[in-house]
Write a structure and sequence with these properties.
Length: 112
């Protein structure tokens, strides 16, 4: 099993969610986060004063999937989250040792 963590632009969330639903992904965890990479923030003007926005708003998706679905999920996220501009985000893939559904006690792929 794999945990796929994707950090994307907030306005792309619906596109990604719909694309993942089309390939059978039933659940995910979504968190509003802030961060920066090479983009390094930007300056904005507020009431005549210029200030630097160091951390940009992003959305973090966490999706637990069986190992055999890893490639298709990553491809769908890349395709649906890409704008072709700087700051599109990152995808991190890690191995899950165990998954347990609290309600039923199911484990492994059955718990996803």
């Amino acid at each position: 099993m794999k945990l796929i963590t994707a950090v994307i632009k907030p306005f792309k969330l619906d596109d990604v969610r719909e694309a993942l639903a089309e390939i059978g992904i039933q659940g995910m965890t979504v968190t509003e986060v802030k961060g920066f990479g090479r983009q390094k923030g930007h300056t904005e003007l507020y009431r005549g004063a210029e200030y630097v926005v160091d951390f940009l708003p992003k959305v973090k998706l966490e999706i637990a999937v069986p190992t055999e679905m890893e490639e298709s999920v990553v491809e769908v996220i890349i395709k649906s989250a890409s704008t072709g501009k700087i700051g599109d985000g990152k995808i991190f893939i890690s191995t899950l040792e165990e998954v347990i559904r609290i309600r039923t006690g199911e484990t492994g792929s059955d718990a996803i």
